[in-house]
Amino acid sequence: CWVLAIAATVLCAAPAWAASKRALLIGISQYLDPEMNDLAYADEDVKTFASMLKGFSDYRSSEITLILNDDATKATLVSEIQDLVKASKKKPLDQFILMYAGHGLPAHIESRKTNSFLAPHDAYLNEFFPEGAGGMLGNETFINKAWLIRQLTEMNARDVIIILDSCYSGARDFGELYAENLGFKTEFASEDPQKRGITVLRKKGARAGEPDRRIAFLASSRENQPSAEYPELRHGALSYTLFERLNAIRLETEAATQAAVTVGDVFRGISTLFDTVKVRGESLSRLHQPVLVPIPAYDEVQGMTFVSIRGVRPPKPIRVAQAEPEPAKGRVYLDTGEDVGEVHIDGEKTGKLSNSAFELPAGRHLVSVYLPETRYNRTLVVDVAPDTEQRVDVSLRGRLEIESKPGKRGQKAPELEVFLDGEPVGRSPLTLRNLVAGSHTLTVKVNDVARERKVEIRPDSPLLIRYKIVVKPAGRQADDSGADSVTF
């Protein structure tokens, strides 16, 4: 176990906040490309952050754009980002938050550099092509690194927070190019143990950015590192440590007040957790380390507000002799239908399963239901009213569709034999309904050629997987049946 010290938070009475804020939150667990494995927690991590912003911070629903799974196509993401940039030029923002959780690409593929960076739902790995004369590889189905940086550079916001919970998301490539666009040069990562993982920048003369603009770019890994998801944590590593830090501050902050949580406080808390939280005997930092790129400099960015969090701790009694009144409570019945999961409330395991009633203090609580067999974690904010009992229905079932299409126009795509978790379930085209949410292994076969991948089933996001089948004539041999060969 570990203890989180609450430091560098600024307490104030909860105000009627009028700042102009926007958050664009993108979480992709399900991918259209059969060659790209789905991710267990990316979408739920982003949904959890959205719930925390709405339920415990000062963000309104209208200020949050949440894009998940099959809605997160490249066309949609490009349009949404461009619209936000355009709107910020008409009405400047006090704060803009971008969070992306999903697949990311390294800066080099097969020793060739690429500007392709983040994978939307409809990205395809087999669409790379030589780009320009410098030996670079391009892929129009991915979000381009240089394009994204140009958009973020044009965003008219006083404070910008970027959270990338993806592989290869670190400073040397994306962060360095972003800083370059703003007139800064990356010098090195700080050697100060207290500032480990923080990139140091210097100005590049007259181009150096505006003094009233501050940017915090937080990445889950360095540019040459993968980023891990952990069923033991029910989250990706960066998202888990972020939520733990914010939740600890929320529980330690007195009710009816807000803690203005700073960038410095968040990054210190995340870094500490990466070192102290162990999974299967190893710390999270053994595989990858979080990175912070502060623009223009750490000293100017560390005090910048990351989020404001409303507290839940009961106030201390004014008089010692006066008995503290029992806090008002309500009951919540968590109904998950035919599936039963482990229940966590405000980050703590309750020891109870769903389809049960829970007595909770009045107010908002972060409730999670976890299915260990399929590693699915569903998180929601529940507002408990005093002296009442409410029923909360949580769906834990989803749908999967499998199709095949021919490699050439005019050809007929052969049917695929479909197996889920090793069991035959039919032939394509096939729709499987009422599947338990979470991770499953999908296998398809045709002419003794098989493809296997991990898929994620979601209650609110039906998954379509379309296989492209290429049939090639096989050379006839003495013992050959004459069957054509098939590739996916």
Explained architecture:
With 488 residues, the chain is of the alpha+beta class. It folds into 3 domains: 18-310, Rossmann fold (3-Layer(aba) Sandwich), CATH 3.40.50; 329-393, Immunoglobulin-like (Sandwich); 397-475, Immunoglobulin-like (Sandwich), CATH 2.60.40.10. 18% of the residues lie in helices and 40% in strands. The chain is built from 7 helices and 36 strands. The strands form 12 sheets. A 6-stranded mixed beta sheet has the order 3-2-4-11-14-20, sandwiched between helices. A 4-stranded antiparallel beta sheet has the order 24-23-26-27, with helices on one face. Strand 8 (129-131) and strand 9 form a beta hairpin. Helix 1 (42-56) runs parallel beside helix 5 (237-252), helix 3 (145-154) packs across helix 4 and helix 5 (237-252) crosses helix 6 (263-276). The protein is globular and about 85 Å long. It starts with 8 loop residues before the first strand and ends with a strand.
Overall geometry comes to globular
Helix content: 10-25%
CATH class of the largest domain: Alpha Beta
CATH fold description of the largest domain: Rossmann fold
Please give the largest β-sheet. 6 strands, mixed
Structural class: alpha+beta
Q: Strand sequence of the main sheet, in spatial order? A: 3-2-4-11-14-20
Range of strand content: 35-45%
Gap between N and C termini: 47 Å
Please identify, by name, the CATH architecture of the largest domain: 3-Layer(aba) Sandwich
How many distinct domains? 3
Tally of helical runs: 7
Number of strands: 36
Low-confidence spans: pLDDT under 50, at least 5 residues? 1-18, 476-487
Compute the gyration radius: what is it?
25 Å
pLDDT averaged over residues: 83
